[in-house]
Amino acid sequence: MCTSKDICVIIGASHAGVNTAFNLRKEKWLGKIILIDADPELPYHRPPLSKTYLTANTSTTNLLKPIESYKKDNITLLLGKKVTRLDAVNRCLFLDNETKIDYTKLVLATGAKPIIPTIEGLKETASYFCLRTAADIVAIKESYNASKTKKVVIIGGGYIGLETAASLKKIGAEVVVLERESRILKRVATAVISDFFRDLHTQNGVQILENKEVSKVENTLENGVKVTKVHCTDASYFTAEVLIVGVGVIPNTELAKQAGLKLKNGISVANTGETSNLNIYAVGDCAYHYNLHYKTYVRLESVQNAVDQSKIIAANICGNPLIYNTIPWFWSDQYNVKLQIVGLAENYTDYIVREEQDKENVISVWYFNNDELLAVNAINHTKAYVFGTKFIKESKKIAKEKLADTSIPLSKDIAVVN
């Protein structure tokens, strides 16, 4: 049971950290709550960064909570402050100005940071950007607005790279996406999904180039304009005034390592959110946890995971035991297309594609491990997403012949009655 003298410190003020702070109050945490982040901005929504923020004329971010809410729940915000040291033995941490902060419980919501690939000349190029924070967006927009040719090269054909390409195309950019793999989205989706989004981008004027491994980046002058020349291993090259790198992220585990916590693809946590130190919890993108439904360990980079996990952690910190047991879901918006994903498609043995009759671009891909439905990718198809979610949660077996027959409307009747 907590007391008014207890202190819970949360490092990281994105979705996971902010929701943990407010959930602690809901769970009747009586003590002090301190929320720390190196980002000086009042915590904001991150999914729109690669979407509406890029195309908006304003730099105003969509706040997670108004400042009044933090005051009302007595949550102390320390923004623009970096935690440099963590002493788990004496339960304290130090900020970059050497301020010492003690804690009773600590929550690591440290998130992840962009991977910077080892490419000759990349770090010396002033006009390259990642896309993780509001400051990144401001820098990209300033660089793009100042550019004369409006040429943009994006390294990486994952969801972030493709969402960014769609947004920049909307405001008139000439966009080239360079993907190292044989197809975009190869790590996360079937060829059906890759083909759909390749066609979508091509139709909208974005150049998608696969099997393109970037080997070198250099600054040069072209027709009197300072540009970046992006060289590939096949001797092709592309010029741009704005270069964006979106090849994935890695979890921020430096403080966890200092604390001697167990690490594996992130910070290892129990289904309560507790790390290998009983006074330290981890939540969100940095947490590596066991998914009870899929019986496997995962680290999820999603708002849904951050929000749901924060509720479990807050409850457990306050002495109300709960375990984390959810089906992951994600989404991506590109042009006028919404992709909704539920479940984990890893280790699928087969899949079924439904292209709904008389409905353009209404598609769903159903992934199975033999008879078990693992995941559904739904393009402009909320009904498939909803039924897929229900069937996965209830471990329903699917009549595959019915599912594959698009003359049969998608309904609960495709589930086999036990």
UniProtKB/TrEMBL annotation:
Residue intervals of the FAD/NAD(P)-binding domain: 8-309
Under Gene Ontology molecular function, one entry of this record is:
oxidoreductase activity, acting on NAD(P)H
Q: Which GO terms describe its cellular component?
A: cytoplasm
What cofactor does this chain's UniProt record say it requires? FAD
**Annotated keywords:** FAD, Flavoprotein, Oxidoreductase
Q: Where is the Reductase C-terminal domain?
A: 329-411
- EC class of this enzyme? oxidoreductase
Which SUPFAM superfamilies does the record cross-reference, listed alphabetically? FAD/NAD(P)-binding domain (SSF51905), FAD/NAD-linked reductases, dimerisation (C-terminal) domain (SSF55424)
The record's EC number reads 1.18.1.3
- PANTHER family cross-referenced by the UniProt entry: APOPTOSIS-INDUCING FACTOR 1, RIESKE DOMAIN-CONTAINING PROTEIN-RELATED
Q: Which protein, by its recorded name, is this?
A: Ferredoxin--NAD(+) reductase
